[in-house]
Amino acid sequence: MELKLEVCVDSVQSAIEAQKGGADRVELCGNLIIGGTSPGKALFTQVRKYTDLEIRVLLRPRFGDFCYDEYEFAMMKEDTQMYKELGADGLVTGILLPDGTLNMQQMQELIRIAGSMDTALHRAFDVSWDPFVTLEQAISLGMKTILTSGQRNSAWEGRELLKSLVKESDGRIEIMAGAGISPDIIPELVPYTGVTACHMSGKIVKDSRMEFRRDGVSMGFPGFSEYEIWETSADNIREAAMVLQEFCQA
């Protein structure tokens, strides 16, 4: 039995830590603190330079819903072409219509541009109208993976749907559990649901190297400190990888 561990990262250091910990691949993003957005070229090239990991790149032009206008879709097409030319292994994306179903026309266009890159449907799946309709749509598009929390805030909360999706997919597409994944959850979640891949950040919060600090000035969301850095921990990834390895050997 093969079980994959994918780590979502938004910095070179996090990607290095993911590799140290034994990740199979990374989902490369920008701005994980808001759920992830498309990363830039420089981040991709630096992660490729300093790691040997398989790299799937998130394609999400902004924070918020997954229903994009013509300008945003044009950006997504340009980014897809860029990532293909840079040598990304895969693309992680999702576009919805206002009725909550996949925008098949736009998805087909992105997959056409992606060419030989594998494609994964991200957690746009979790806010889609009907998970089983979306499952079949993703399969019909030839996508390799669905990343999902079972349409709940965490994969453990969504375990019943995850189990049903694994059964319904019948090996036609990889069901990867994401949201709230940790070494403590994996031993219960994997055997219960039958998922064959797990997705996690393994993050810790590090203190800024800044000595001088200006209090009372926020650059983004209120309540988030400008002097805390989110970074993947190799130890957290290593522990999760070891747990998954035990299942593979069982």
Q: Can you lay out the helices and strands and say which pair or pack?
A:
Elements: E1 4-9, H1 12-21, E2 25-28, H2 41-50, E3 54-58, H3 70-86, E4 90-93, H4 104-114, E5 118-121, H5 131-140, E6 145-148, H6 159-169, E7 174-178, H7 186-193, E8 197-200, E9 203-207, E10 228-232, H8 234-249
Parallel strand pairs: 1-2, 1-8, 2-3, 3-4, 4-5, 5-6, 6-7, 7-8
Antiparallel strand pairs: 9-10
Helix pairs in contact: 1-2, 1-8, 3-4
If you had to describe this structure to a student in words, what would you say it looks like?
It is found in: Cytoplasm. Keywords: Cytoplasm. InterPro entries: CutC-like. This is PF03932 family protein CutC. Pfam families: CutC. It is a single chain. This protein has helices spanning 12-21, 41-50, 70-86, 104-114, 131-140, 159-169, 186-193, 234-249; strands at residues 4-9, 25-28, 54-58, 90-93, 118-121, 145-148, 174-178, 197-200, 203-207, 228-232. With 250 residues, it is α/β, with parallel strands linked by helices. It has a single domain, classed as TIM Barrel (Alpha-Beta Barrel), CATH 3.20.20. The strands form two sheets. An eight-stranded parallel barrel has the order 1-2-3-4-5-6-7-8, surrounded by four helices. The protein has a two-stranded antiparallel sheet with strand order 9-10. Strand 4 (90-93), helix 4 (104-114) and strand 5 form a beta-alpha-beta unit. Helix 1 (12-21) packs parallel to helix 2, helix 1 packs parallel to helix 8 (234-249) and helix 3 runs parallel beside helix 4 (104-114).
